[in-house]
Structures are given as C-alpha cells and as structure tokens.
Specification:
By secondary structure, this protein is mainly α. The protein has two domains: 2-33 and 257-293; 54-251, f41 fragment of flagellin, N-terminal domain (Up-down Bundle). It has helices at 2-32, 43-97, 104-125, 174-178, 186-198, 202-255, 259-293; strands at 128-129, 132-133, 159-163, 166-169. α2 (43-97) packs antiparallel against α3 (104-125) and α2 (43-97) runs antiparallel to α6 (202-255). The longest helix has 55 residues, at 43-97. The chain is rod-shaped.
Length: 295
C-alpha cells in the first residue's frame, strides 16, 4: 500500500510539474505572441525569426535617425523662411529710401534698421540644431558666421541612410543660402546698403534693389532644396513604417500564436494546474495520515 501511495504521489507531483511548465510556456506565448521562444522550440523557425528581428531592428535604428534628421531639416527650413522675410523687409526699406526726396536723417534711421536686420540674419544663420550649427556644414561646433560676418563653415552635406542603399541629406547649405557660393554675398550686400544709406547715396540705394531681390531668391532656392529633402525623408519614414508592419506580419507567420487560442489555452492550463494542486495536496494528506497511523 505504501508503495502504491508513493507512486500515486510521485505521479501527481510529476503531472503538476509538467502542467506548471506548460502553464509557464503558455504565459510567455500569451505575453509575447510567439510560439518560438528558444531555438530548441523550432530551430528552422527560430533562425528565420532571428533574421527578421535583425532586419526590423536595423529599420528601427534608421527610423530613429530619420526622425532626428527631420527635426533639424524642419528647423533649417523654418530658419530659411524667416531669413527670406528679413530680406523682404530690407527690400522694402531700400525702396522707401530710394526716393530722392527723403532727407539724410531719415536714410540714416533706415540704415540703423538695416544694420539690425543684418545682425538678425547672422543670428538666424548661426541657428543650432541637434548636431550643432545648422548652416556650417561639417564645422558644427563653430558658428557659421563670425562677428565680422565671415563664413566659418563649408558646404559639407550630412547624409544618413533612408533605407536600403538610399541616402538623404539632413542639413541645409549655409554657403548656398548666404554667401557668394549661392550667387550673392548677402551680408556684404546688406552692408553696402547700410553704407549707401549713411552716405545719403540715393543712386547706390536704388542699385541695391535688384541685389536684394537676388539675395531673397537665393535663400528661397535653398529653402526649396530643404523642402525636397524633407519630402524624401518623409518617403523613407513611410517605407520603413510599411516594412516594420511587414516584419511584424512575418514574425506572426513564422512563430506567432492566435491570441484567442493562446488565451483560451492559458485559462485551461491555469484550471488544470489548480486541479492538479488540489489532487496532489489531497494525496499527500492521505499519505501522511496513513503513514502516521502505522497501517
């Protein structure tokens, strides 16, 4: 009898241990949505799942990089828009001052505002983003334009992967936007306008009007280039989002479990574990009473 009781208790404990293992696995499947939790579960599926997860992780890293790049590009685009507005204001002031009837003191006052616009434009050109100076090219640790309005940067393009072998530029060119590399040295043109105003030189003020137009167009062209890069970046983000959805589908196909079925299985195993615990406790109790009685 004792041997039979011990066998029953041993069998109950073995069954309980097995049910607990199954319950633990079912819990992991329900929480992860995957049936392949270790290579031993399905070596072929595990290897394919690893490849999918590696590609998905790579795509997520590129997405994060694009998100940071988009922040800088949007900041550059907005800064160029503000810069173009300053050039429009300079043109308005020059048109007002081109009137020969305007007295010298009025032109001097306008010259003060032009000087302020020039300083404001330098502040915009020295805007910093997540990587440093937006318009200094590779010289991100320095101001794009120093106090003498000299360009300190270069025309280096910061590019990042946008998926596959594709690259997208994530900075705007300060050289093309503000210096003679883009057509006009805008700061020099504003300085020339200020000088003409202080000298009460109406002819030179009128001559500046076309140059200011060119400067405005120059900044607008660089803003348009930035907009093109933003569109390319957005396309890259959209493609990566679609790929991530595809990877999730592939993971589910290779190693996924049906949510409803997984939940039902988990509940069934929970109930089975509880029943097994009750049976085992009863058997242990009976065995203990039997042994204690000396029968």
């Amino acid at each position: 009898m004792r041997v039979t009781d011990n066998m029953r208790v041993g069998s109950a404990l073995t069954n309980l241990s097995s049910l607990r293992s199954q319950h633990l696995r079912a819990t992991r499947e329900a929480s992860t949505g995957l049936r392949v939790l270790a290579p031993s579960d399905d070596p072929a599926a595990a290897a394919r799942l690893t490849r999918i997860q590696r590609m998905q992780s790579d795509g997520e890293a590129i997405s994060r990089s694009l998100a940071m790049g988009r922040i800088d590009l949007e900041l550059a685009e907005g800064t160029l828009a503000s810069s173009a507005e300053l050039m429009k204001r300079a043109k308005e002031l020059a048109m007002t001052a081109s009137n020969d009837a305007l007295p010298a003191d009025a032109r001097a006052s306008i010259a003060d505002e032009v000087a302020s616009l020039r300083e404001a434009l330098r502040a915009l050109a020295n805007t910093k983003g997540s990587r440093g100076s937006l318009f200094a090219g590779s010289k991100t640790d320095a101001e794009a334009f120093d106090a003498s309005f000299t360009f300190q940067g270069d025309d280096y393009e910061h590019s990042i992967r946008s998926g596959g072998n594709s690259q997208v530029t994530i900075n705007a060119s300060g050289a093309r936007a503000f210096t003679a590399a883009g057509g006009r040295d805008i700061f020099a043109d504003l300085e020339a306008l200020e000088t003409a105003l202080r000298n009460n030189d109406g002819a030179s003020v009128r001559a500046s009007l076309d140059l200011l137009d060119q400067g405005h167009e120059q900044i607008t062209r660089e803003r348009a280039r930035t907009g093109v890069q933003l569109n390319r970046l957005a396309q890259g983000e959209e493609i990566l989002s679609e790929l991530n959805y595809l990877y999730e589908s592939q993971k589910s196909e290779v190693a996924g479990v049906d949510p409803a079925e997984s939940y039902s299985k988990l509940i069934t195993l929970e109930q089975a574990v509880q029943r097994s615990i009750s049976v085992t406790e009863r058997l242990l109790s009976l065995s203990g009473q039997y042994l204690f009685s000396g029968q």
